[in-house]
Q: What sequence folds into this?
């Protein structure tokens, strides 16, 4: 009986002391999705490298591991015209990091960075393999393209 009680206490203390992490992203597929991002394109990754940053916290500095993945842009929907772009994102070795497959066609939504020809991709920013793009995203992009065309024609 004592052994069972000790085992129960040990089990409960192990369970209680373990860390749990969760990430919940709520992405709405409406016009604001297009408005919220500076760069939207279809393209494919050609290379990736790991980079390290020191945190800005002077009292408790830590090294942050990120990745920079270079993409060739096949079709630009929104953003500055370019053939290639670098994406700064969480490393695939960190919690919920991104791992892009070389030469896999992707649809990417990203935000401008303060470094030229580089954008940032957050943990909850949408990105899709091209063959898995939700129809609602395709519809939004087509509407956006039509709106851009009508704005050019009406000027």
A:
């Amino acid at each position: 009986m004592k052994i069972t009680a000790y085992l129960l206490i040990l089990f409960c203390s192990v369970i209680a002391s373990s860390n749990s992490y969760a990430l919940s992203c709520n992405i709405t597929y409406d016009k604001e999705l297009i408005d919220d991002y500076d760069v939207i394109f279809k393209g494919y990754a050609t290379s990736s490298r790991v980079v390290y940053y020191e945190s800005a916290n002077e009292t408790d500095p830590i090294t942050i591991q990120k990745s920079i993945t270079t993409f060739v842009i096949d079709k630009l929907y929104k953003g500055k015209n370019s053939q290639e772009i670098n994406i700064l994102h969480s490393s695939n070795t960190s919690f919920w990091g991104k791992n892009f497959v070389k030469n896999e066609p992707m649809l990417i939504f990203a935000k401008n960075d303060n470094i030229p020809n580089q954008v940032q991709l957050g943990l909850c920013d949408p990105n899709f393999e091209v063959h898995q793009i939700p129809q609602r995203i395709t519809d939004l992009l087509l509407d956006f393209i039509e709106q851009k065309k009508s704005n050019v024609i009406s000027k």
About this structure: The first strand starts at residue 39 and ends at 54.
